[in-house]
Amino acid sequence: MNDQDLKGFTTRAVHRGRGFAGTTGAVMPPVYLTSTFETGNPDGFDYTRSGNPNFRLLEQSVAALEGARHATCFASGVSAITAVVSTLKSGDRVVAEENIYGCTYRLFARVFEKFGLQVSYLDLSQEGNWKEIRRQRPALVWLESPTNPLLKIIDIAGISAVASEVGSPVLVDNTFASPYLQRPLELGATLSLASTTKYINGHSDSLAGIVATQDDGWHEKMVFAQKALGLQPGPFDAWLTTRGLRTLALRMERHCANAQGLAAWLETRRGIRQVRYPYLPSHPQHSLARKQMSAGSGLFTVELESTREQALAFCRRLRLFTLAESLGGVESLVCHPASMTHASIPVEVRHKVGIGDGLLRFSAGIEDLEDLHRDIDEALEEVLR
Ligand SMILES: *Cc1c(COP(=O)(O)O)cnc(C)c1O
User: Is residue 167 part of a domain?
Assistant: First the structure.
């Protein structure tokens, strides 16, 4: 079958990309645990830092899911971010959404600003702030949607249109939505980045990152960064990620249904101050979420009417939700941002942006909804008695 005939998302996830099984007939691709390749081989491999059959398969598969011409894989989401930012030079300006992933902020603030990169942070959910993109003509606009942990939705098409007027490339960190629910390149973004550690791999057993683009120039820069900065993944991690992504659609359907079901129920339960989920009408950017995502994803936040101690006691009392950082795996997780992911942010700043002591972020796994429901209900009953 011609590759172009593979129209459906899951058909592409299962069939796109070459497995390099050679003459063996192996249905699943082998893992190429080799650091180097004999010179002059027909596939053009030379050294694993600059390419390996397992990377190529992963890259072709993710490109197919993102609707991209190119994708380049890296050792982690943070490696992928490093690759993109390493293309900038001293004096360049980045306009970034103010609620970006903490490690992206840290990389800008503690590493790249030392080399003269200038970053301005704006609330990009406010259209009034987009004029700063026109005014500053940044070397890069950096956003993610939904954001972490507040699940703000940023208008990717709107911002991409404004940025393209002044020739600024737009990067979207698509980790929270995954290409099953949202394809930034189709909405006009230049680069779509993901920590495949989360939904794309989906089994919490390996780290990797990916950058997808339609642009040949950007693709060249990413391939260069992969080998020149030594940001490549291990072949086995690339293999695990390729295996994981074949079931992305099936898992996302369940993640979304579980998150939507739990969030809608929690909104009506006593003891809860606020629930945030992009596909609930109570979400401030609900109609935008409906427009740019095909479902609400597996994350929701809940603000308990509780002290910090009660919130943590609630987390410990849960049996099916493990208290841990990360998200997007088959197992449910819960995170207390104020003491975990966002602990390093000064208290006043945290409260100002809406990360209070009672705020919890849930990553709904693929378990049965009734079991997750009962687990939360019993824990709330006990702690908020
Ligand atoms: C986890 C995460 C990253 C970083 O990915 P790693 O694979 O942990 O390096 C980047 N962006 C977002 C939105 C994330 O959730």
Answer: yes
Given a contact cutoff of 8 angstroms between Cβ atoms, the answer to whether 100 and 143 are in contact is yes
Same domain, 37 and 175: yes
Based on the fold, state whether residues 336 and 362 are members of the same structural domain: yes
**Nearest CA to 122 among 107, 110, 135, 113?**
135
pLDDT tens, residue by residue, 349-382 = 788 878 899 999 999 999 999 999 999 999 999 9
- Same domain, yes or no, for 295 and 222? no
CB atoms within 10 A of CB 347: 10
CA–CA separation, 383 vs 379, rounded Å? 6
Q: Are 315 and 183 members of one domain?
A: no
| One domain for residues 63 and 194 | yes
Ligand 1, residues 100, 108, 175, 205: which to mutate, most atoms within 8 A of Cβ?
Answer: 175
Residues assigned a catalytic role: 49, 101, 173, 198
Which domain, by its residues, includes 345? 248-384
In the reported structure, the alpha carbon of residue 224 is separated from the centroid of ligand 1 by a whole-number distance in angstroms of: 21
Could you tell me the pLDDT band of residue 344, with boundaries at 50, 70 and 90? confident
Residue ranges lining ligand 1, Cβ < 6 Å: 76-78, 101, 103, 144, 148, 173, 175-176, 195, 197-198, 207, 209
Number of H helices, E strands in the chain: 14, 12
Beta-carbon neighbour count of residue 204 at 10 Å?
19
Residue nearest to atom 15 of ligand 1 (CA): 175
**Domains held by the chain: number:** 2
Q: 126 CA distance to ligand 1 centroid (A)?
A: 24
Residues 237 and 269 both lie in one domain: no
Task: Return the ligand 1 atom nearest residue 79 CA.
Answer: 9
Q: Quick check: pTM over 0.85?
A: yes
Give the Å distance between the CA of 195 and the centre of ligand 1.
5
